[in-house]
Structures are given as C-alpha cells and as structure tokens.
Amino acid sequence: MNVQKYISVWKALSYAELQQAFINRWTNILFLFGKLLRLGMSLLFLLIVKNTVSSFAGYTSDQIVIFFLTYQIIDVLGQTLYRGVYIFSNQVRSGEFDFTLVKPISSLFQSLVGKPDFNDALFLIPTVGISLYLLTTLNITITATSFLLYLALLINSFLIITAMHVLVLVVGILTTEVDGVIWMYRDLSALGRFPISIYMQPLRFALFFIIPVGMMITVPAEVLLNAAPTHSILLTSIVGISFFFISLRLWKWSLKQYSSASS
Asked: Most-buried pick from 2, 88, 134, 188 (CB within 10 A)?
C-alpha cells in the first residue's frame, strides 16, 4: 500500500470536510457547544464521585477517574476519525458506494475515514488537556513503565475500535442499516467508563471477548494504575490483533455479497 498516496487522499478529503464545516458554521458551533456541555456534565459527575465515593469495586475514587478518562479519549478519537461510518448506510442505499468501489483507492479506507469530524477533532483538544490536568490532581502512582505499557495498549485499543467500526460497515453492506448497530456499540462501550469486572457473568465475558470493551478500556487503565490486569497484556494484544484481522476478512467477504444499486 502506498502510504504517501493515502495520506494525500486523506488530506484532500479532510479539506473538503473542513470547507463544508465552514459553510454550516452555526450548526457546527451548536454541535460543538453540545459536546462541551456533555463534557462539563461528565466532569461534574467525576467531581461528585471523587468527593463523595471513597471506594468502588475495590478501586479508589481517583482510580475510577482513570477508567473514565481512558474511555473518554478512546471514544472521542473513534468519533473523530470514523464519522463516515454513521452515513455509510445512506451511501449503500443511494448507490453512492458504487462510485467508491471503482475508485483507485481502498473502499474500506474511504468508507472509514473519508469524512473526519472536525468538531470532534476540536473537542479532542480540551479532552486531552483536561485529562492531563486531572492526572496531576489524582492520588495515584504512575511509573514510567506503566505509562509506556498504557500507551502501547492504547494502540491495541485503537485496533479494536477500528475493528468495531469495520464490522458496522459490514452490517451496512449486508442490511443497508447501521444506525441501530452503531448506537448499540456506543451504549456497550459506555459500560467501559467503569471496570468491566463489576458486571456479572455472562456480560463480563461478552465485554472482554465478544465485544472487547474491557480489552479496549479496562486493561489499559489497570496497567496504568499498576494494578494486576484482569487479563494479561499478551492475551489483550492477541484479542485486539485477532479482532482487527477478523474484521478485515469479514469486510472482504461482505463486498462479495454486495449488490450494487443498479442490480
């Protein structure tokens, strides 16, 4: 794959989306305001937890904040890069996806990252800044080793969240509907705001191995806190990498099932 070519294509697509954002500036300003309001409510919730809850499921209130911040960063990153997934079903139903398939670039690449969300990109800046500030106020011990392992596991989390969005695209090709699936994924991933170990079986198993929210959020947060991870780093990496490659295989299979708008 020509990486430079895809970087150039992504820049062109991003520039087109940025122009559209300026055209609909008031709509985007209201959307960004709503995002900031949601972030404010989340911070208020964290403040209440920090000041009123001494421990939760064996974790201190400061440690719970780490789980919440890890979820927040991963969630915003996914929404920033993969916003095109939300409109994919419309492209399939209208036949626009036919034109994507005949272009000399990966159809998966354009479907995933063809419409980056600049509102979420702007929102990522205060999210990261506030997260770093909160880390300095927490009574936790973070070592250089735990931080480096945390960053490595965040890369694994990125593979998982990418795989989840690829699977949504697969469903979009097979059923021409993604709204229900993407919101179901969002609701399930929101369970990662807290350690997955607090949930009962079989939900806990499902959130680690079927829809691996736990591998995506819980294990990295546990490693950062120098706590014994629920599952080993090796197993977490295997699940993340396997999940990613399985999603790619399913995408290739789904393309063979696709019937164009003209057929």
From this structure: 88
